[in-house]
Amino acid sequence: MIRIGNLEKSYGEQKALKGITLDVENGEIFGLIGPDGAGKTTLMRILVTLLLPDKGFATINGLDVVADFRKIRTMVGYMPGRFSLYQDLTVAENLQFFATVFGGTVEANYHLIKDIYGQIEPFRNRLAGKLSGGMKQKLALSCSLIHAPKVLILDEPTTGVDAVSRKEFWEMLNNLRHKGITILVSTPYMDEANLCDRVALLQNGSILSIDTPAKINASFKRKMLGVKVVNTSQRYGCVNLLKEMKGVDSVFSFGDVIHVTFHHADIDEIIVREYLFGKGQQDVLVEEISAGIEDVFMELMQKN
Amino acid sequence: MRTILYLLQKEFIQVFRNKGMLPIIFIMPLVQMLILVFAATMELKMIDITVVDLDLSETSTRLTAKLESSSFFHLTRAQLSPSETDKILLKGKTDVVITFPQGFESDLKRNDQASVQILIDAINGSAAELSNAYLQTVIGSYNQKVRAEMMGVPKFTPPEQVQVIPSYWYNPELNFKFYMAPGVLVILVTIIGLFLSSLNLVREKEMGTIEQLNVTPIKKYHFIIGKMMPFLIIALLDLTFGLIVAKVAFGLPFRGNILTLYVFTSLYLFLVLSIGLFVSAISDTQQQVLFVSFFFLIIFIIMSGLFTPVESMPVWAQNLDMINPIYYLIRIIRNVVLKGSGLLDMTRELIYLSIYGLLMFSLAVWRYRKTV
Q1: Which of A53, A135, A278, A299 has the smallest number of Cβ neighbours within 10 A?
Q2: Which residues have C-beta within 8 Å of that of residue A32, sequence separation ≥ 6?
Q3: Nearest residue of chain A to residue B209 (CA atoms)
Q4: Are A89 and B215 within 8 A, CB to CB?
C-alpha cells in the first residue's frame, strides 16, 4: 500500500531522513517507533503531501506523493501530532466541515466512525477546545476518517492521553484495520509497538530494524535480568550500583523494572542479588526476563 | 462553489462566536466616526493670547478689544518686560504674545505707520501658521477701519480697492467634518480588512489547524476566497454603518451615487484583503503580521492625504503614493460624497485599483503554500 524508497529530507544542515526504505502492506497496522527527533513526523508529513522530499520516492496505492498529490489527499486520512481541529467550532461542526471540504457528507461514511464518534456524540454541541484529551483524540480520528480514506496516517496519536484512552484507541485502530484501512502510526511508547503488525525502529533519520514485534523481541539473544526495587526511592541508587558492577553491559530503567545485561552469560540472579545485598539494598527482586522492543531498541542504538 | 460556501459558513460561525469580535465590528465605526471626525480638526479655537500694551492708548485698547471679541482667542492682558515675555512663551503658558510698543498711537498718527510685535509659539507649525493668519485678518481689517477714520473718509464711501470674494465649491462652508469623515471611513474599512483577514489566516497557522486543512483537497484560490469574503462583507457592513453615523451625527452631504461608492470600496477591499493575506502567508505568527501591517498602515495613512494635502508633499513622495491604496480610496470617497463623481469620472482610479488588486491577489495565492 505504501512504498518508500531511499527517502531523504534535510532542514538546512540538519538531515532529518537519511535514506528511508520501507513497505507497508495492505490492511496492516504499521508502527514507526522511535524517540523524539527520529524523523517520524517528517516521514509522515512527506507521505501526506505537506513536505517535499529531497531524494527518493514515496507512493501510496501506486500514486506518487509529489506528482499525484491531489489524488493522495483524497485517499489519505491524517491526524497530526498536535490537535489541529477548530477549537472554536463544536464537535458536530468540525465533523461536518471536514466532511464537506472533502466533498462528502457525514451520513455517507457514518458507518466508519460510528464506534468512535458514537462515544463523543452526546457532546456534539460542545466546543472542540472544551473537550478532554481523550475526547479530542476521538474527534480528530473521526474527522480524519470521515472521507473514507484507504490509508490512515497517525502521528503520535496517544501522546499525552491517559492509559485507559490509549488502550481504547488501539482497540479502535484494530477495528479499523478489520474494515480494510491500512494504518501507519508513530509512537514514542515502546509498549504500543507490540500492538502493531509490524514496526520500524527509527533513530536519527535511519531505520534500525523492520519486522513483526515478536521477531524483533526474539532477535534479542542475550540473557537479561529484571531488577525490581520494592522501595521506589532506592531505585536510582540501585541503577548506579548496577552500573558499577563488574561484568555488567547495560542498565536501563523501564517503568518499575531495571533491565540489566551482562558481558558474561554466567552471571545470574543470585550473584546480582548478593551484590546488591552487600551494598545495602535488601528489598530487591531479581529474576530473568525476556527482552522487549525497548531492549532491542537500546541495543541497536548502542551499536550505531 | 459548495466548498467556498462551507468555508464561508465556517468563517462566519468563528467570527460571531468570538466574543471580542462583535464589539470591534460594531463599536469601532461609531467611536471612530464620533471621536476622530470631531477631534481631528484643523480649525483653531481658543488660542491663548497675552497682550502686553505698553502704549495704553485709545488705538491699542480698541485693537485689543477687537481681538478679545473673536471666538478664536482667549485673551489675557499683562504688563511684562521682554524677558518675562520670553519666559511665559517658553513655559507654554500662552501661545501668542502681542506687544504694543510705547508711542504706538503717536507713531501711527505722526508717521502714518506703527509696528506691533507678535511672538508665536511654533512648536506646532501648522497651529502657528493658522494663528498668524487669524491675527493678520483681524489686524488687517482694523487697519483699514482706523485708516479710514484718520483720513476722514466717510464710512459709506470707502477708498477704491480690489475686493476678493472667494467661493468655496463642494464644501462652501469649509466644514472640516465633511472633509474628515470620508477619510475616517476609509481608515475604518482598511483596519477591518487588513487586520482581521491577515490575523485570521495566520491564526490557523498558530493553532495548527492549517495542517489539517492543507491535507484536504481544497484548492488554494478557494481557500483564499473563503478567507476574503467574510471580511469583505463585514467591512462593507461597517462602511454602511459609518455612513449612517456620518449622516445622522453631522449631516454629511451625499451628492454621488451610493452604488459607485460600494463598487470602489469593494475593489479597494479586494486589494487590501489581498495585501493582508499576502502578509499573513509570509508570516508565521500573529506578532509578525501585526508588526508588518502596522508598519505599512502608518505609512499609508500619513501619506494618504487624510491630514495633510498630498499636493504639499515632495514630488517623489507623491509618486510613492501610486502604491498607496488608502490615497486612492480617500480621493475617491471625497469625490463621490462631496462632488458627486461617478465611475466614469474616475476611470483611472478604477483601472488602477483593479490591476493592483489582481496583482496582490495573485501574489497571495502564489505565496500561500500547502506544501513546503
Answers
A1: A278
A2: A38, A40, A43, A44, A184, A185, A186, A187, A199, A200, A202
A3: A84
A4: no
Residues of A in contact with B371 (CB under 8 A): 49-52, 69
Does residue B131 belong to any structural domain of this protein? yes
Chain B residue set in contact with A, beta carbons under 8 Å: 2-3, 6-7, 10, 13-14, 17-18, 207-218, 370-372
List chain A residues with CB under 8 Å of B207: 84, 86-87
B160 part of a folded domain:
no
Nearest residue in chain B measured CA to CA from A53: B372
Interchain proximity B217–A85, CB inside 8 Å = no
Ordered DSSP codes for B256-318: S-HHHHHHHHHHHHHHHHHHHHHHHHH-SSHHHHHHHHHHHHHHHHHTTTSSS-GGGS-HHHH
| Residue A149: per-residue pLDDT | 93
Indicate whether B357 and B249 sit together in one domain: yes
Q: What is the mean pLDDT of chain B?
A: 86
- What is the band of A153 on the pLDDT scale with cuts at 50, 70, 90? very high
Cell 534535510 maps to which residue? A10
What confidence score (pLDDT) does residue A185 get? 94
Structure-block grid coordinates of residue B240: 454602511
Domains identified in chain A and CATH numbers: 2-217 (3.40.50.300), 220-303 (3.30.70.100)
Q: What range defines the domain where residue B258 resides? A: 2-40+175-367
Candidates A73, A86, A97; nearest CB to B6? A97
- pLDDT value, residue B159: 59
Q: Is B208 in Cβ contact with A84 (below 8 Å)?
A: yes
Span A27-36, pLDDT tens digits: 999 999 988 8
Q: Do A97 and B217 make contact, defined as CB atoms within 8 angstroms?
A: no
A72-86: pLDDT as tens digits: 999 999 999 888 899
Indicate whether B71 belongs to any domain.
yes
CB A85 within 8 A of CB A139: yes
pLDDT at B167 exceeding the cut of 70: yes
Say yes or no: B349 and B247 in one domain: yes
| B123 & B188 share domain | no
Compute the average pLDDT of residues B133-159.
74
Inter-chain residue contact B215 with A52, CB threshold 8 Å: no
CB contact under 8 A, A70 and B217: yes
**Mean pLDDT value of segment B128-143:** 84
| Residue of A101, A142, A154 to mutate, testing the B interface (most B Cβ within 10 Å of its Cβ) | A101
Chain B residues in contact with A70 by the CB 8 A cut-off are 217
Question: Nearest CA of chain A to the CA of B348: how many Å?
Answer: 40
- Residues B69-111: tens digit of each pLDDT: 887 788 888 888 888 888 888 888 888 999 999 888 888 888 8
Question: Is there a contact between B97 and B73 (Cβ–Cβ < 8 Å)?
Answer: no
Helix (H) or strand (E) holding A261: strand A257-262
Residues B217 and B120 in one domain: no
Q: Exposed e or buried b for every residue in B255-292, given b needs 16+ CB within 10 A?
A: ebeeebbebbbbbbbbbbbbbbbbbbbebeebeebbeb
* B215 part of a folded domain: yes
Query: Cell 523524539 identifies what position?
Result: A36
Counting the structural domains of chain B, the total is 2
- Per-residue pLDDT band for B220 (boundaries 50, 70, 90) equals confident
Query: The CATH number of the domain where B135 resides is what?
Result: 3.40.1710.10
Mutate to test the interface with A, among B9, B206, B209, B212 (most CBs of A within 10 A): B212
Per-residue pLDDT at B283 exceeds 80: yes
Would you say residue B155 has pLDDT above 60?
A: no
**Residue B213 Cα, gap to closest chain A Cα (Å):** 8
